[in-house]
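Sorry to interrupt, but I need a hand with the structure work. Can you supply me with one protein entry, sequence and fold together? No commentary is needed, just the two lines. Leave the record below and I will have a look.
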Amino acid sequence: MTTSASRSYRPPGWLLAFLIYLALGVVLWWHAWSGGPSSSIPGGSGDPEQDVWFLAWALHALVNGDNPFFSQALYARQGVNLLVNPSILALGVLFAPVTALFGPIVAFNVAVTIAPAASALAAFFAVNRLASWRPAAFVGGLCYGFSPFVATDLRFGHLHLTFLVVPPLILIMLHELLVRQRRGPVRVGVMLGLLTIVQFFISTEVLALTVIVALIGIVLLAITHPRESPARARLALTGVLTALTLSLVVLAYPMWVIVAGPRHITGPALKNLDNLTATLAAAVVPHGERFGVLFVSGGNGSYLGAPLLLLLVAALWIWREPALRFAVAMAAMAYVLALGPRLYVTRGGTGIPLPSAVFQHLPLLDSIVPSRFGAFVDFFAGMALAIVLDRVHAGDFGALARHLQRRDAARSGPLPPLPAAVAGAVAVGGTRRPLAAVAGAVAVVAVVPLLWLPPWPYPVRHVVEPPVLRQRSFTAAAPGSIVREYPPVLVADAAPLLWQAVDGINYDLDDGYAIVPGDGGRATEKPPVDALSLVFTAAALGTLKLPLSASADVAIRDVLSRDHIMALVVLGSTSGSAVVLAALRPLLGRPTERLDGAVVWFL
């Protein structure tokens, strides 16, 4: 006789799913973990350095009581409004213990490893509401957390776009309010409000995308269920108003910071949004993305693959199920929004206007990158696939089963009779093991093309802080001390942000890599131009002519005096460093320190 205590422990399905997702996340970032998580970051742009800096800033603000929404540690003369940037404050707080114990680079690597796994788990819970078979829900989560959209942006860090845990949870709350209605609307509304607040501090853009998609879903439900909608509206409205009230109370000041606070911007945060759109071909062509999307995301985040698309089309004929139709319709509408303001079949435009054009004329929505609706295309496509797998496993073959039954009854038809075992499985469910194998084969055919698209594992580069910046002169600098470094911060290499973050943001930088207001308040990432920045830029481009003119010497002295620069650092073994040293020695005299090729003047 066995008791329940003596039975072997079986972990809950969601935990097993998460462990598999997490293992896949480790595989994605294997080069980072095997090469040293404290000195490995992705290459290709300055975005990973920026994410590392944002994680460090959250801890710095918590420890020092600084304003988390505004910082003068970058662009020291004017500062930077962090809420108009993808500053991932919520993630900075979440991973602050890792940052404090192991440093911001390790925290970044932990975050990017967990991001797809946690996002997939959130989708698993959402999909499991409609697909009760756990393996089917697992596949649905996989299609979301490890989708081409996530995979392409994740290789550049982009935690604000790839830590997509909250959107599925928001959709779960809305499903509870609008469909199930088994819990009190106020309680669900509070949860919805809290999730909204958290997502605001991860990414305001993803929050806007979620709200738009949710509104489309609500309208679609009202249209397809006209008789049920009025009866459910009262409870749903109570929950939504509760969520709105809580969100507005907490987010009123942060919203003011975005629209009217110090160093806010006017207009969209990114330029040339018309270039950041999906194409029709991108859905089936692995590398069918437009150049603008390739530049900001690193690949085709709109890819779905012909097998998955054909499967969903066939499923709509086989099953007349409302949940499946809803999921496919939502995926299709999200893809239309991802196409942007004008239709591109391939990389050439047609000029045909599309619904996303309206966002370009709406305040706060004019910064939406259309291609980023792809995250919701993947979510609903994964949900539809999970529903199909669930029905296959249950032996419910809908119209196909009815067709086969009619054919067998008539003992005629263009197809030969199916073997009895197969016909029985298709018509009435058969045994579970063969059906589970069939569902597994369908999942492999649909999902493998999605997972095959990004490089496994991601490439990373090894980074080592210059020893000169680890000197006590920098690590114990007085608050507000400003440092100028060569090479300067560049879009492709924001190393000064990385070293500042690693050192705990003990000093300020006169330049930076973030969105700041430029001419007319329009968004730019360029620091103010001065004599020293012109010299540094010319040296980096290989166009600096020596010797400097007397007027240039005077202008550089004025910059150093006006900005109260604590230290001027020229890192050796970098392109242009030799000519910078030759330009500055006559002006500043002998360097204060030399270490491993780096030169420092303490001023």
About this structure: The chain has two domains: 13-40+103-384, 469-602. Residues 13-40+103-384 form one domain.
